[in-house]
Amino acid sequence: MSQPILELKELDVFYGPIQALKGVSLHINEGETVSLIGSNGAGKSTLLMSIFGQPRAADGQILYQGVDITHKSSHYIASNGIAQSPEGRRVFPDMTVEENLLMGTIPIGDKYAKEDMQRMFELFPRLEERRTQRAMTMSGGEQQMLAIARALMSRPKLLLLDEPSLGLAPIVVKQIFATLRELAKTGMTIFLVEQNANHALRLSDRAYVMVNGEIRMTGTGKELLVNEDVRNAYLGGH
């Protein structure tokens, strides 16, 4: 059996005296889409950020392609094939769409910038329409597309997505997840943190459920979609 592309082993993370993650273990195989669902404040975003060392793990291990990256710098992690689209989008507001996309090439250099930018415009046609527009003048949905596209500009082997549906209209959420489905079909490895459990589980090969900083349940996306506890807690009983 092949080695997971990402493996977390007994991860403990603290914010000051407060323990945010408690002995978290999970893995992601190459080419998989894996989601982490749970209520607000469960520790999902903390887990994603801890992969980049912000905050650092107090105990446990983070292995990427078999290499221990627990104490590696964020630059090392980004330049070795992990990219993150952060919660709240965090685009560069005064920069144009094109300039934001170019910022995504910093970990790998701009050798492929032109062809990759064209690929992003094919993936997100709205961005091509807005290519010379400043990011701050765009809608929330367009900014989310830009944040994902910027992450993809570093040609990642593993894409981390933190709450891509947050604050977006339902029709835009559908568009975003349709694009993620297309990305998954290309073999992209995706780790998705998402409050919208319905969309996340439908997209995912496997998923983990986090409660109060601990993994409480795991299974395939299909299994968790029909699990009664998951349905009652995260899917409104439907």
Automatic annotation (TrEMBL):
An annotated Gene Ontology molecular function: ATP binding
UniProt key word Cytoplasm: no
Gene3D superfamilies: P-loop containing nucleotide triphosphate hydrolases
One Pfam family in the UniProt entry: ABC_tran
Domain of life according to the entry: Bacteria
Domain ABC transporter as annotated: residue spans: 6-237
GO biological process annotation, one example: L-amino acid transport
SMART domains in the cross-refs: AAA (SM00382)
Keywords: Amino-acid transport, ATP-binding, Nucleotide-binding, Transport
InterPro entries the UniProt entry points to: AAA+_ATPase, ABC_branched_ATPase_LivF/BraG, ABC_transporter-like_ATP-bd, ABC_transporter-like_CS, BCAA_Transport_ATP-bd_LivF, P-loop_NTPase
Family: Belongs to the ABC transporter superfamily.
Name of this chain's protein: High-affinity branched-chain amino acid transport ATP-binding protein
Source organism of the structure: Pseudomonas fluorescens
The encoding gene: livF_2
